[in-house]
Amino acid sequence: MNFVSAFQKVRNNNVFEGFVISIILISAISIGFSTFDEVLEPKYLKWLQSLDYIVTLFFLIEITIRIIAEKSLIKFFKNGWNSFDFLVVFISLLPLEGNETVLLARLVRIFRLLRLISFVPQFRILIEALIKSIPRVGYVMLFMFVVFYIYAALGSLIFGELDPLHWGNIGLAMLTLFQTATLEGWPDLMYSAFEVYPLSWLFFVSFIIINSLIFMNMIIGVIIDVIVRSNDEETPENIALLEEINSKTERLEQQLIVLRTTIENSNQNKS
Question: Which is more confidently placed, 37 or 89?
Fold first, then answer.
C-alpha cells in the first residue's frame, strides 16, 4: 500500500508534471532538428537518435508510474487521455526497421506533442468543449451548406456563361464560393462579373457577410457557450471533494457538541 502511495505522490507532484512537459517539448524540438539530416553532421544525428531513445525510455517509465498509481488497469484505461498516452508510448517502442515502420514511428514521435493536452488542464477543457460542441456546430454547418448550395446554384445560373471556369456547374461554383469564403481573390471574381452585371457586388458582398460574419460568429458562440457550461458543470471530482468536505464538517460539529456537553457536565459537577 505504501508502495502504491509513493507512486501516487510522484504522479500528483507538480514538479514531476512540469518535468514531463519539459521532456515532451524537448522531444518535439529534437524531431524538428532531425529534419535537417542533410545539413547536420552524422555525430549530431547520432546524438538526436540517442536523445530519442532516452525520451522513449522516460515515457515508458512515466506511463508505468501512472498505471501503478491507478491500482487498476481497468480504471487507468477508462480515462480516454490515459489510453491515448499509452497508445503513443506503445507505438514509440516499435522497432525502426523498414520504410513503412520508420514513417509510422516518426509520425508517432510527432504526435508526442499532443500529450501536452493530457497534462495541461486548460488544453483538456478546450478539446472536450470542441468535442461536446460537435452536434450543435453540425447544425450550423448544415445550415451553412444550404446557404452555399443556394448561392452556388444562383452563381452558376447568373455567371455560368460569363465565367465557365469558376461557375460552369454547381460543383465549380461551390469551390469558387469556398475560395470567396476564405477571402482569397474574391475581388477579381467580383470585378470580372461587375463588368457585365453591375449589381453582382450584391451577390458577393452578401455571401461574405453571411458566411464570415454570421456563420463564423455562430460557431464561435456555440463553442464558447459549451466551454462556459462545462466550467459550470459539477464534475465527479468536484462532487467527491464537496462530499468529503461536508463529511468532515459534520464530524467536526459532532466533536464540538460532545466537547460542549463534556464542559457543561464538568461545570455542573464543580458547582
Answer: 89
